[in-house]
Amino acid sequence: MNNTLRTFMLLAALTALFVGVGWVIGGTGGMLIALVLAGAMNLFSYWNADKIVLRMYGAVEVDERHPEALVRTYAADVQELAARAGLPRPRVFIIQGDQPNAFATGRDPEHAAVAATIGLLRMLDRREVRGVMAHELAHVRHRDTLTMTVTATIAGAISALANIGLFFGGDRDRPMGLVGTLALAILAPIAAALVQMAISRGREYEADRGGAEISGDPEALASALAKIESWSKRVPSHTAERNPATAQMFIINPLSGQGADNLFSTHPNTANRIEALRRLAGARGPQPARRGPRRAPRLCR
């Protein structure tokens, strides 16, 4: 299934969920209002969802002129990898957070942005950071970023609308009454999450393969995933905890780092991803030595 059709189906499913929540809360009138809101939200999200997510995480744009050498190197490496992938120059952002993680966003490669936490730059060596950013650029090349960003926005709205129904709906004039509204408040966010998850796990495997191709160093990405997985269990991302619908955008689940291959996982099992990358590295044969680590890992203050 190509990404354009995949995106259309995903947005259609989320829109249907949103309209269904409106019907439960307000009957036919509520459904019509929700339909209009969903249409406006899809249009607004197409143009602005990337800005919303970057602002949500306090991301700051950086480039090769940044005063900190670590950040300058990161920005320069992203642009080099983008050129290697045949992509336009993306905007590059830093997030002030200890948890090592990263994501890509933007409606198309011409409007793409990549963001990494300062924790990622400080806990990983240069090879590993390059591997992570190559993975994110693979998302850009596969045009996954629109899907990830817009679905995060709409899924969050579905959860919020269901909560509104819990507090303000539920009288006997509503189509499903109090019991239905309570069930909705529980099931609607789960249903939205399931729609997101329908494509996210396969997408991550594809981006791992694409990132290994762009960087030419699958072992570096495998090593990075192992470190991020380990640290994400110990270092919380408070912004992600407040906005769980954005979790599927990151290279590793920022909420728990558990990534198990089950129905409720937004990410594939990290050990499976590492194994696939190491098989790929073995198939490629021995690779020449690449840039080594820059400094010992430490948390930002």
> What is the radius of gyration computed over CA atoms, rounded to a whole number of angstroms?
20 Å
Order of helices and strands: HEHEEEHHHHHHH
Q: Please give the alpha-carbon distance between the first and last residues.
A: 45 Å
Pairing-aware structural class of the strands and helices? Answer: mainly alpha
Overall residue-averaged pLDDT value = 79
- List the total number of helices: 9
Largest sheet: spatial strand order: 1-2-4-3
Would you identify the regions where 5 or more consecutive residues have pLDDT less than 50?
A: 257-264
Count the domains. 1
> What's the overall geometry?
elongated
Kindly state the percentage of residues in helix: 55-70%
Strand percentage lies at 5-15%
| Quaternary organisation of the protein chains | single chain
- How many DSSP E strands? 4
